[in-house]
Amino acid sequence: MLLLDRSEKMRSARLQTGRAMVQTQARMASHEPLCLECHLCKANLAVLYCLTKLNLFFSEALVNISMIVPLNVALPCYGYIIPVVVLVTVVTNTLITIVLSDKSLNTKTNQILLSMAVTEMLTGLSSLPWFVYYYTLRGYEEDTMHGMPPIWCTLHRFLSEILPRAFHTAAIWLTVLLSMRRYCTVSTILLRRSGKGVPVKIPIVLICVAAALLELPMVFSRHTSSVRADNRTYCVQRLASWVSVIGPTKFFIGSVWFNVVFVHAGPCILLVIYTGLLIRFILKRAKRRRFTSSLRQPTRYHSNAQMLAIILCIFLATEIPAVVIYIMHVLHLTFKIIPPRRYHAMNIALILRNVLIVAFCPLNLVVYLLMSERFRKVSRELLLQTFAKALLLVPGHRGWRSSTPTYLKACQTNQRVSKSASAPQLAHRYSSLIISDMEDFK
Question: What residues form the membrane-spanning segments (predicted)?
Fold first, then answer.
C-alpha cells in the first residue's frame, strides 16, 4: 500500500508539473518570444528558455514545438516547399556528384566541389523525414491532441537540429576552403609551381570531422524521453549532470556564441574577404586583357575563377542573411534586445531564410552547365553512355544492340584521343604557366 501510494503521489506530482509547464509556456509565449538557435529547427533553445523561466524541475523541460514555430508560415514552407526543393536538390547534386567523380575531372578543386555538393544535399535530406512527418503529414495535430510519439520524441532533435547543422557547418567551411584555394591559385604561382604538398582530401576530412565533433556537446547535453500521463504523451528533455555542474545558462550561451564565431560569422567574413579578392583579381585581369592582344582569350584559370566566384556569391547571398538573423537571436538570448512584438516577424524571417538556403542549392548545377564546357562535355558523354547501355537491356532493338558496343568503344577511343591531344595543346597555349592544377574544368 505504501508503495502504491508513493507511486500514485509521484504520478500525480509529475502530471501537475507537466500541466504547470504547459501553462507557463503558454503564458510566456503570449508575452515573450522564445530564443532560437538552430539553423533549420525552431526548438533548439527551448530547454534554456524553460530552465531560466521555470522554478519546477530545473533540469527538465517540455518540448512544445507548436508554441515555438508559427504554424501558419511553417506549414506551407516546411510541409510543402522544402520537401519539393530537397528532392530537386537531391537530383541535381547527385548529377553533380556523378559528373565530378569522372576521372577526367578528378582534380583538387573538383574534389572540394564534390564534397560541397554532398554536404549541401545531406543538409536538406537529413531534415526531410521530420518535415514530412510533422508538417506534410500533419503530425502536429497528433502532437497537439495526444502528444508526440516516442520515436519522434527521440529523433526530432537529431533530424531537425543536430544533423542538418553539422552538414551545413561542413558545407560552410568547405566553401571557405574553396575560396581560399582558388584565390591563391589564380593570384600567385605558389600553388601553380608544384602539385605536391598537402592533399586536398586531408582538409576535407578534417573539416567534416570537426563539424561532427562540434555537435557532440549538444548531443550529450540533453536526454529526451517520453512520459505518459492523463492519456497524453509528454516529450521531456533532461539536462545531463555535467551541464548542471557547469551551469545551464553558461553552457548554452557559451555554445551559441561559439557557433556565432566559428560556424556562422567567422566563415562568412572569410568568404566575403576571399570572394572580394577573387572578384577584384578577375576584374583586374579582364582590364589587362583589353589592352593586351596576347591575353584577349581568358585562360582556364580565369574561366574557372569566374564560375567559382558566381558560386561563392550565390552562397553568400543566402548565408549573410542567415548570419544576421542568427546573431540577432543570440543577442536577444544574451541581452534581450528585441521587443516581443517584433520577434514574431523574426521567426517568420528565419523560416523564409531556411527555405532560401535550401532553394539555392540546385542553382549550382545551372552554373556548371552554363559556364563549364568540360562539365557539359562530360555530362553529355555520361548521358549518352548510360542511354546506350540501357538500350542493351531493351528487347526487340537488335539493330541498336548490335551497334551499341561499337558506339561505346568509339566513345572511349574519343576520350583517349582528346586526352592525348589536349596535353601539347595546353602546353603550347599556357606555356607561361606551370600546369599542375590545370585539370579544372574549363
Answer: 54-74, 80-100, 112-135, 162-180, 200-220, 256-283, 304-328, 348-370
Which superfamily is assigned to 7-371 in CATH?
Rhodopsin 7-helix transmembrane proteins (1.20.1070.10)
What is the distance between the alpha carbons of residues 245 and 228, in angstroms, rounded to a whole number? 29
Cα 139-145-151 angle, rounded to 5 deg: 50
Residue 71: count other Cβ atoms within 10 Å of its Cβ: 15
Q: Which of 201, 211, 40, 179 is nearest to 115 (CA)?
A: 201
**Residues 377, 371: Cα–Cα separation, whole Å:** 12
Name 211's Cβ contacts closer than 8 Å, sequence gap at least 6.
166, 167, 169, 170, 173
Take residue 319 and report the three cell numbers written for it: 548565408
Task: Compute φ and ψ for 225, nearest 5 degrees.
Answer: -150, 160
Give strand pairing partners of 239. 222
Q: Which residue has the cell 578534417?
A: 206
Nearest to 127 by CA among 155, 148, 169: 155
| Tens-place pLDDT, residues 107-141 | 888 999 999 999 999 999 999 999 999 999 999 99
Residue with cell 504523451: 233
C-alpha dihedral, 281 to 287 to 289 to 290, nearest 10°: 170
Helices (H), 54-162: 71-76, 82-100, 108-131, 139-145, 150-157
- Vertex 61, ends 57 and 65: CA angle to 5°? 160
Which residues, including other chains, have CB under 8 Å from residue 406's CB and lie 6 or more apart?
none
- Where are the chain's structural domains? 7-371, 374-415
Give the DSSP H or E segment for 433: none
pLDDT tens-place string over residues 373-412: 888 888 888 888 887 777 766 555 554 444 555 555 555 5
CA atoms of 125 and 130, how far apart (whole Å): 10
Rounded Cα distance, 16 and 201, in Å: 55
Point out which residues pair with 61 in neighbouring strands. Answer: 237
One-letter amino acid for residue 311 of the chain: I
